[in-house]
Amino acid sequence: MTQIQFQPRTDLPRHPAPGRAPAAAFVDITDADAYCATRPVLGRIDYGDTATGASLTGGHPRLGLGMGTGTADLPAFSEVWTTEGPVETGSTDGIVWSRDDEFLLCAGHIPEADSYAEATRSAYTTAIDLMHELGHTRCFRMWNFVNRINEDNADGLEVYRDFCLGRAHAFRRNGFADTEVPAATGIGARGDGIMFYLLASRNGHGTPAENPQQVAAYRYPKRYGPEAPRFARATRLVLDGPGPVYVSGTASITGHLTRFHGDVERQTGLALENIARVLAASGPAAGAVPDLYDLDLVKVYVRHADDVPTVRAIVEATLSPHAEVRYLVVDVCRADLLVEIEGIARTVAGPRP
Fold it and tell me: Which entry of 210, 227, 273, 340 is annotated as an active-site residue?
């Protein structure tokens, strides 16, 4: 089995990062209604086998994704974001949202189209305008689920690159400097068009972290499309102290190049090493720097279902046995990538000072 270069410190006690943040949990999709009924919910994201789009359901935003789950080995689940409440919900120009006094969750759907740049620019601009209108101007995490992500659009441009073009235009129009973009995941999906959701804060801010062994995504050369992907490798939410580190979808890339073509073991190992590097770059909280053992709420996107057992063995041998990990079978943002991993470091190792 692949050995991870950055071994986590398993011998140290773990403590929650002290800063304030929205809570999240993975819940069996059949239990999600009951779970949501007993707490203030910012949003519910269903990772199932059928895409149902964005809606206000049960008094909160709900986004239904088709993500290759729903089998005994890959059960469907809901990612539920909660707060201390109370919450206000609404729908604005196709964007569904919920907020408390500090945090905002928005979700939206871009319908299937021959090309996506303009529709993405418009949808992102609507979401950003809504953030400003509601006073939650600091976006620290985004997720994007792109159907046919590696196929070409009607103009011969790969759909992911088409999406990146629209996202870049929206960020530029709305004054996002490259060094201020949030952590993000851009991954394949099975469904209609593009679905997305984001988290934003009123008073907190996301401090970006980059991997010193990778070129920042927003500085990728033109070989990857007319506009580079605009996202940070991770962001640490800082509000009333340093909070969790939100790790973007991370893959087998060094510099800007894909490594270990066709080798899912080594790609998984390098993806985990890259997460370790970006966690180290995120800086200390509670007197310590997070490592792989602090990673939780992990989503592992695997291109081929037959590779899931191999990937699972490597991931579970590396992360904490207490980490919540879910596996999804979808395409990845580059056709030569076999696996992508994201998560949240909610704890840090060692005693508080």
Answer: 340
